[in-house]
Design brief:
By secondary structure, the chain is mainly beta. Helices cover 0% and strands 55% of the residues. A hairpin with a 2-residue loop joins β2 and β3 (33-38).
Length: 174
């Protein structure tokens, strides 16, 4: 049997809810704050910057020079090209209660637990997102990931739902 060993840690004391790692940085959502940690040396992670998001956030993904954060009815697009100076470049209304996001190939996929929908958002220009489509998927969702042409969604009943998202303007629940 193998044994996992912790190689490093950093404590911030906030209510960390979600994390994504891209390159040398970990992006952590802590209620109303985005915390960026340098993890290039795993045995000595260091705090880089914090960004006040003003409102609560629950889901995050990173693609290129942008972090995409959802919560409180809004998709926040954050320029992270300089991790020491992150800044919000766009607030885009996405529904009542967006809870998770996955970004793949110039599209952001957002689930909304109140509207029971998967929303497909064009982010080819991250500073000007636009809604491409919505799909009613029913049930409260807990998690979402998009891989290639499929969105995988797990709901509170532990049911895996798979959505074909090849056609961004007309996703299809399989």
């Amino acid at each position: 049997a193998s044994c996992l060993v912790s190689v490093g840690n950093i404590s911030r004391g906030e209510f960390a809810e979600n994390i994504v790692v891209s390159g040398d940085y970990a992006y952590i959502l802590a209620f109303e704050e985005l915390i960026i940690i340098d993890v290039s040396e795993p045995s000595a992670p260091s705090s880089v910057s914090d960004l006040d998001l003003i409102s609560s956030a629950s889901g995050i993904d990173v693609s290129g020079d942008y972090a995409y954060v959802v919560g409180s009815g809004v998709l926040k697009v954050i320029d992270i090209s300089d991790p020491f100076e992150p800044n919000v470049v766009r607030n885009f209304t996405v529904g009542t209660a967006p809870t998770d996001i996955s970004v793949s190939e110039n599209y952001a996929y957002v689930i909304d637990v109140v509207e029971d929908e998967l929303k497909v958002i064009n982010v080819i220009d991250p500073t000007a997102p636009s809604l491409s489509s919505t799909l009613a998927i029913g049930g409260s969702r807990n998690d979402l990931v998009v891989v290639e042409d499929y969105a995988y969604i797990i709901d509170e009943a532990d049911t895996l739902k798979i959505v074909d998202v090849k056609n961004k303007t007309s996703p299809n629940l399989i």
